[in-house]
Amino acid sequence: MLPSTILRDIEKTAIQNGLFVMGLKDFPKLAETTARAFDGDPLFTHMKKDATFEQVRHHALVTFKTLVNHSIVLSCNDKCNDYIVVCEPGFKTIKTMSYILSGGLKTVFDYGIGGALRMINYESYATGMRKKFTGFNDLYLYQLATNPDFQSQGNGTRLLGFATRFARRMELPCYLETHTQKNVDYYCKRGFRLVAEEPLPGSDGVIHRSMICDK
């Protein structure tokens, strides 16, 4: 499947701005960054329960592969220490069968039926919230992460700034989700506003927060 025109435009503009476009060969390293960056994150803890680092890393790798035709992954360098996943307008959700075919069956066994159901239920809930606020006509920032050993260098802010500027150029809002108050403060300082904050159904105290940077 060929990338959409807007993803090709994002790629071209990102390269012009000195960013790196990550490909399939980079996904294993990006998955490791994900597992390290989200260690202790309320949502990841809710999803994985007692899963090991390697199991979380594999889940992240499968997610990158599943999104490959609907998103672009950008980084400030070629070391995969930071990244942002930008999904094209109109993208709705990760489909369960696509996830399985990308290697997700192992995650189902690793996380168990309960973990698999928690992932499916979260995707359904998060998709409904996004539909409510943007109708999927947005630049969806699926994930922003930095390896803890390389934080406080401004790379996350640089990636986020690129995405919001590009979205304004396209006259689209940027939409993202977070589950920690610290991140809310971070995003608000960078042009986002909180549009919803409520307990994630079926979780033990996870708060789902929807945020938008207006077009």
Task: List key phrases describing it.
215 residues; alpha+beta; 7-stranded mixed β-sheet; 19% strand; globular
Summarize the structure.
It contains seven helices and seven strands.
Walkthrough of the structure:
- The protein is of the alpha+beta class and 215 residues long.
- The protein is 50% helix and 19% strand.
- It contains seven helices and seven strands.
- Strands 1-2-3-4-5-7-6 form a seven-stranded mixed β-sheet, with helices on both faces.
- Helix 2 (27-37) packs across helix 4 (53-67).
- It is globular and about 45 Å long.
- The mean pLDDT is 93.
Question: What's the topology here?
Answer:
Layout: H1 5-16, E1 20-22, H2 27-37, H3 42-48, H4 53-67, E2 71-75, E3 82-87, H5 96-134, E4 139-146, H6 155-169, E5 174-178, H7 181-188, E6 193-199, E7 207-213
Parallel strand pairs: 4-5
Antiparallel strand pairs: 1-2, 2-3, 3-4, 5-7, 6-7
Helix pairs in contact: 2-4, 4-5
What is the SS-derived class? alpha+beta
Mean pLDDT: 93
What share of residues is helical?
Answer: 40-55%
Which consecutive residue ranges, at least 5 long each, have pLDDT under 50?
Answer: none
Q: Kindly provide the radius of gyration, computed on alpha-carbon positions and rounded to a whole number of angstroms.
A: 16 Å
Total of DSSP H or I helical runs spanning 4+ residues: 7
Shape: globular
| H and E order | HEHHHEEHEHEHEE
Describe the main β-sheet briefly: 7 strands, mixed
- Per DSSP E runs of 2 or more residues, the count of β-strands stands at 7
Q: Tell me the distance between the termini.
A: 29 Å
Strand content: 15-25%
The largest beta-sheet arranges its strands as 1-2-3-4-5-7-6
